[in-house]
Amino acid sequence: MKVLYFARFRQALGRGGDDIAVPAGVTTVRGLLDHLKATDAGCAAAFADARLIRVAVDQTHASLETDIAGAREVAFFPPVTGG
Fold this sequence. Notes:
- With 83 residues, the protein is of the alpha+beta class.
- It has helices spanning 8-13, 29-39, 41-46, and strands at residues 2-5, 17-19, 54-57, 60-62, 73-77.
- The radius of gyration is 12 Å and the shape is globular.
- It has three helices and five strands, in the order E-H-E-H-H-E-E-E.
C-alpha cells in the first residue's frame, strides 16, 4: 500500500511517503496509524495527536475508523483552512 504524507507530516518525517506491506490484523486507518507509530519513532512523534490528522483513502476523505481492506493509497494531512 502507498502511504502518503503531506504538509507538516511530510516535513516532520522528511519524506513524502512509504510503500508498506500492511499486516493482516490492520483493517482500519486507525490500525494503520498504530502500526506506523509502533514501527517508526518519527511517525510516533508526527502522529501523536489524532485531532490534528486528516486522512484520505484512495483519494476520498475518510475517518480513522474507515476500512482499508483493498485500498491502494492512504494519505495523511493536517486540517485544512481556507479563506
